């Protein structure tokens, strides 16, 4: 987005130069002085912009955001008091929490963020959330107390609700088409990928998800049931009730989703990364370029091995079992597509 916007600035300036030139030829010295001052001011803005400090850009982003939220009556069946989705967070002193849903492309994001950190002179602490904190709120709190800010932490955690006690927390996440995610998770747990070849749970399962779905009782079926619920459970949070996936869980997941600054989608990774820059301009500005540099290598080594294309019937069957998941996916899509329009991504 910044790239696009800068480009627009340039186009704007080049056409302006031409009209400046025409006007200057036909005007008196004090008019030239006025233009000189204007040109100086433009230069000042360009310099500020290159330092990431452009007040106009900030004000514009905020204006676009506010105008848009008012003009579009976004879905609000959640009782949530403040929607953070798509709202830029300026400054650097944040704790970014990325509670990764498995098989959604998170490694592409984390590799890009790490490259960003490597090439940055300002510190951003990257941490993996420890296993024992993933679903234990008090351990999670202990963990984040110890980390200096700014920080970016990542792991398969249940949503940790710090809305009231840690205003510096920024939530980000990525979701994927529910059936594709389940299928990917199944084959990943059997075969892994180049980056993660450790033996996974699935070494005794049918190597074809269709054969598993024909069984009536098998560990592979339990695994599929688990994958089907994982997204809603993670967005629902640490509450005991979140372990059962029902309408209550869905409702809580939607409420929490609006506390995220960004939930991207796997099928639009490129846009997701551009959006990440926009919502954290001072902390992660430029991370899209890091993503472009690293994405092919990451994608090559994180393609789940031996993944088979399932039949239309299998897709239909899984889809019918995952109505709540699709309701959530569609809910997020509304916000994500809206964010894209708002920032012209
Ligand atoms: C959503 O609805 C609730 C309850 O009607 C209301 O209190 C809240 O302000 C609304 N939130 C937004 C962002 O409009
Ligand atoms: C979470 O961890 C604390 C110790 O930090 C422990 O006392 C508590 O029982 C744990 N809670 C759950 C639900 O496991
Ligand atoms: C990724 O794989 C493609 C196709 O196999 C190959 O053309 C490309 O060079 C690979 N890229 C990297 C960075 O490994």
UniProtKB/TrEMBL annotation:
Organism domain of life: Eukaryota
UniProt cross-references to InterPro entries, sorted A to Z: Heparan_SO4_2-O-STrfase, P-loop_NTPase, Sulfotransferase
Annotated compartments: Golgi apparatus membrane
SUPFAM superfamilies xref list: P-loop containing nucleoside triphosphate hydrolases
Keywords from the named record: Glycoprotein, Golgi apparatus, Membrane, Signal-anchor, Transferase, Transmembrane, Transmembrane helix
Keyword field contains Glycoprotein: yes
Ranges annotated as spanning the membrane: 32-53
GO CC terms of this entry: Golgi membrane
Primary subcellular site in the record, as a coarse category: Golgi
GO MF annotation: an example: sulfotransferase activity
Entry membrane topology: Single-pass type II membrane protein
Protein family according to the UniProt entry: Belongs to the sulfotransferase 3 family.
Protein name, UniProt field: Heparan sulfate 2-O-sulfotransferase 1
């Amino acid at each position: 987005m910044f790239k696009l916007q800068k480009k627009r600035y340039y186009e704007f300036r080049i056409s302006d130069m031409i009209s400046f030139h025409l006007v200057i030829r036909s005007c008196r010295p004090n008019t030239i002085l006025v233009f000189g001052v204007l040109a100086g001011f433009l230069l000042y803005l360009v310099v500020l912009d290159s330092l990431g400090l452009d007040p106009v850009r900030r004000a514009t982003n905020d204006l676009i955001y506010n105008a848009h939220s008012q003009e579009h009556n976004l879905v609000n069946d959640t009782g949530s008091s403040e929607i953070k989705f798509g709202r830029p967070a300026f400054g650097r002193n944040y704790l970014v929490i990325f509670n990764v849903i498995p098989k959604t492309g998170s490694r592409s994001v984390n590799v890009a963020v790490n490259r960003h950190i490597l090439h940055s002179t300002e510190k951003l602490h990257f941490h993996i959330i420890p296993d024992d904190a993933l679903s234990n709120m008090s351990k999670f709190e202990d963990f984040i107390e110890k980390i200096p800010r700014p920080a970016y932490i990542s792991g398969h955690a249940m949503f940790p609700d710090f809305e009231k006690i840690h205003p510096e927390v920024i939530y980000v996440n990525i979701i994927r088409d529910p059936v594709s995610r389940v299928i990917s998770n199944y084959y990943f747990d059997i075969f892994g990928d180049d980056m993660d070849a450790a033996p996974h749970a699935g070494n005794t399962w049918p190597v074809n998800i269709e054969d598993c779905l024909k069984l009536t009782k098998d560990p592979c079926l339990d695994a599929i049931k688990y994958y089907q619920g994982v997204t809603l459970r993670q967005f629902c949070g640490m509450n005991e009730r979140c372990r059962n996936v029902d309408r209550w869980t869905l409702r809580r997941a939607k409420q929490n989703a609006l506390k995220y600054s960004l939930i991207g989608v796997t099928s639009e990774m490129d846009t997701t990364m551009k959006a990440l820059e926009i919502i954290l301009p001072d902390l992660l500005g430029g991370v899209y370029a890091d993503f472009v540099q690293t994405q092919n290598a990451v994608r090559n080594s994180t393609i789940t091995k031996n993944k088979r294309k399932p039949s239309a019937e299998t897709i239909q069957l899984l889809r019918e079992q995952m109505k709540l998941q699709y309701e959530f996916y569609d809910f997020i899509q509304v916000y994500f597509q809206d964010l894209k329009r708002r920032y012209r991504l």
